[in-house]
Amino acid sequence: MQWGQIKTLFILCFLILDVFLVYQFINKTEQAQLVLLPDTSIEEQLEAEDIQLQNLPNDTPKKTRIYADRYDFEEEDQEKLAERENQKSSIRENGKILTSVFNEPIEIDLESDKSKISSIVKEEIIFGDEYEYWGYNEKWNVLIFFQLHEDNPIYFNESGVVLVSLNEEKTGLIGYLQTRLVDVKSTGKEQDLIKPIQAISTLFDKNQIYSRDTVTEFDIGYYTLVPLQEGGNGVQFFSPTWNIHVNEERNYFVNGLDGQYIAKEEDEFLERMNKKKTELEQPVRGGES
């Protein structure tokens, strides 16, 4: 082998060695940073990202998991609605769903405050005090109401919701779909929920909170542990959940007992409910009133 070839081989070997050493150095540096990270408190990390916390609760309440069954709407419920003389109702899916259509659109102003919108809708449905107004979804053109348990909402559950449809002009209510949970019971002893700052830490680790965000509010509700299977009528279980408001425009959910992040699927939820509503165009029980 000629000397020139040997020299070239040595140069290539040294280059490969240099690349390997650089890689090792970078890898060890990153590992060192990861080791140091736990020593940095979540408060310090939030401060470094200029993330503000407002209305941080001082006390952490005790809650239990709960379970509930689906309510069967009856003709008596339709009779109560018939007294209003402004809507025609139907009982569907073996009593699990009540749908109703207003004879004339009921005037609504989406720019009104939530309490005003809530009061208008609750006047037109049965068991109205059991539900809380969540908000308006523009894509599906519906108002969303979640059922309450001890003043805490049960989020995005197909068996405890009222969805109110608006006309194309978005100025009037034209009908609604309603489901209801009953026989709500606790599963055991009350437990301390994770602290709000722990829930924030979960969102931070999941990259759901960004630099210069402001966490504006902390609420407590319930989220379904295991979604009800298609056509299922069994008991459902719910876990207490932190609902965290960011910039007064985004909401995130964290399981209040185990600290797991819960991905909110409002669009998927409404798509399923809209599909169900479409499939139930023809009454299956109780006729119309």
UniProtKB/TrEMBL annotation:
One Pfam family of this chain: YycI
Bilayer-spanning residue ranges: 9-26
Keyword Membrane annotated: yes
Keywords: Membrane, Transmembrane, Transmembrane helix
Xref: InterPro entries: YycH/YycI_2 (IPR042274), YycI-like (IPR018604)
Domain Regulatory protein YycH-like: 40-256
Gene3D superfamilies: YycH protein, domain 2
CC per GO annotation: membrane
Protein name: Regulatory protein YycH-like domain-containing protein
Gene source species: Pontibacillus chungwhensis BH030062
Taxonomic classification: Bacteria, Bacillati, Bacillota, Bacilli, Bacillales
